[in-house]
Amino acid sequence: MTTRAKAIRWILFLCLALGGAAFDLTTKSLIFEKVGPPRSAAPVSLIPGILELQTSYNPGALWGFGASMPYSSLVFALLSIVAGIAIVGWLFIGGAAASLPLTIALGLIMAGAMGNCYDRLVYGHVRDFVHFHVDSINFDCAIFNFADNMLVVGALTLVLFALRPQPSDEPRVIDSQSAEPV
């Protein structure tokens, strides 16, 4: 990878990570300012029976995992910091930045980790506010935020990248009579 290509990947990664974290933190601040803290006001319906703004605090990880663990916010903040260091190391020391999909996926994961880590360190919990539910079929998703979305999209991109067909290193032999690979 050329020096110019590495610089472009750094810029892309930083734009995704810092821009995504800034977007997440800005939306959290705006929604909590407008809607108020949890249980202080009725949720704001965006699509009746499906989508609303409802503030919530989550001291744990995804779906509240580990919320009752002592010092859960600090533990998850430390895990986010360790993950961030590992991501930067994998991308720019380990060479994963040679792959555009990996750079994008890890930039999104870093954005989500930074947004939620900030909340944990500053507030002692993560601020969530998007409540997706489909009342007609009794479906109710955990309340989440945009950092969570970036983490999930980044992780799904990593999974899809890992599952993609690998190019074969074996040379293809072609039968000269049928022009078909053998």
TrEMBL record:
Keywords: Aspartyl protease, Cell membrane, Hydrolase, Lipoprotein, Membrane, Protease, Transmembrane, Transmembrane helix. The active site is at D128, D148. It is a multi-pass membrane protein. It comes from the Bacteria. GO terms for biological process: proteolysis. Its main location: membrane. This protein specifically catalyzes the removal of signal peptides from prolipoproteins. This is Lipoprotein signal peptidase. It comes from Paludisphaera borealis. The gene is lspA.
